[in-house]
Write a structure and sequence with these properties.
With 343 residues, the protein is of the alpha/beta class. 34% of the residues lie in helices and 16% in strands. It has helices at 14-20, 35-49, 61-78, 114-120, 124-134, 148-157, 191-200, 218-228, 248-256, 296-304, 312-322, and strands at 3-7, 28-32, 56-60, 83-84, 109-110, 137-140, 163-168, 204-206, 212-213, 233-234, 242-244, 261-264, 275-277, 290-294, 329-333.
Length: 343
């Protein structure tokens, strides 16, 4: 069976690759991490077929994990009441075989341990069999955001006798589906080691087919490569403007421009403008010109000439933000916009 992980760059057509692989004959399951990405996938399926084919299912990861993998086998026996995204208390430390390690006393399952609970309950072969019964192929988008027990779970279900395709961008890792102590704590520390995990699971690693960005101009790609340290090439020679704006009047004009999205490091909702947060904008493909609002910490890096030495997660979020641009990319210090920030 075809087992592969496609490691791509931003704007190279990851989601489009998945959509183009669909047909109305085979049974497809598509799993992604965020609600926004699920919405994007559903929209593109509708655009391609003109309707939503009955043979295609699109789940967010935890809906898939809980609804498809857990409920049919353990829901009645354990009498659980859905998920909680709160982390388990460190004390008392329950054994791997004790239910309270995986759920609250009121019966809410800890999301970060649900994959482990399924495995610990001896259900992996049953889950694989259920996948094979209902689907011919499984596609997992944004695979770089799967962490903790969830990454192990993906590798475990990849043995199913069906087409398995994982797609993602290692350097767009900004969130983890879950964390649980030391489990895969260093998964995203080293790119080569990350690829080796898939190879060990007998999954083909493809780093060539989606290595050029169709979204970003040559100027934006060059900026990301040189200043952020993520190697990305443009698909063509299209050019756009990349600049830094410190003039207060010009910054205000950009802030008030309804066509230019403003991407903040965090708390974008406190600004009354067309906006989003750096990391949460991942998956958005509808922006033309982008304004990246630079906070005080990142401003220091800007002054030194690059973002190569900033915190890795912050750098990844900045990469996500910059790579949303189809057109021009402008940077504005957040200090110039603070007067417009709501309490």
């Amino acid at each position: 069976m075809d087992k592969s992980v496609i490691l791509a760059v931003a704007g190279s057509g990851k989601t489009s690759r998945l959509i183009d692989s669909l047909d109305e004959k085979h049974r497809f399951l598509i799993v992604t991490y965020t609600d926004s990405n699920q919405e994007t996938i559903r929209r593109k399926i509708l655009q391609r077929f003109g309707h939503f084919p009955a043979n295609i299912a699109v789940f967010t990861y935890f809906r898939f994990l809980h609804g498809f993998c857990y409920r049919p086998f353990l829901r009645t026996e354990k009498n659980t009441k859905g998920l909680t995204f709160n982390l388990p208390a460190k004390f008392p430390a329950y054994k791997l075989t004790e239910d309270l390690r995986y759920m609250t006393s009121s019966g809410r399952l800890y999301s970060n341990r649900l994959a482990k609970f399924i495995e610990q309950s001896g259900l992996m072969s049953a889950v694989v069999a259920r996948l094979e019964k209902y689907y011919d192929a499984i596609f997992v988008d944004e695979v770089q955001d799967f962490g903790g027990h969830d990454f192990n779970f993906l590798l475990a279900i990849s043995v199913a006798k069906m087409k398995v395709t994982f797609v993602g961008d290692f350097f767009q890792h900004t969130f983890d589906t879950s964390r649980d102590g030391s489990v895969n704590a260093n998964l995203h520390e080293d790119y080569d080691a990350y690829k080796a995990r898939f190879k060990k699971a007998k999954i083909h690693v493809d780093t060539d087919s989606l290595k050029k960005s169709r979204r970003c101009s040559k100027n934006v790609c060059d900026f990301i490569t040189e200043k952020i340290g993520v190697s990305i090439e443009a698909h063509d020679a299209r050019e756009s403007v990349v600049r830094f704006e410190e003039d207060p009047a010009a910054a205000l004009a950009i802030y008030e421009d309804p066509k230019t999205v403003k991407l903040f490091y965090q708390a974008h909702h406190k600004y009354a403008c067309f906006s989003h947060n750096w990391g949460a904008s991942k998956g958005s493909d509808r922006y033309q010109d982008v304004c990246v609002v630079v906070n005080s910490t990142s401003m220091k890096a800007w002054r030194t000439g690059s973002f190569l030495d900033i915190n890795v997660q912050t750098r990844n979020k900045l990469y996500v933000a910059c790579s949303r641009a189809r057109g021009n990319l402008v940077f504005v210090p957040e200090a110039l916009l603070k007067p417009h920030k709501r309490p």
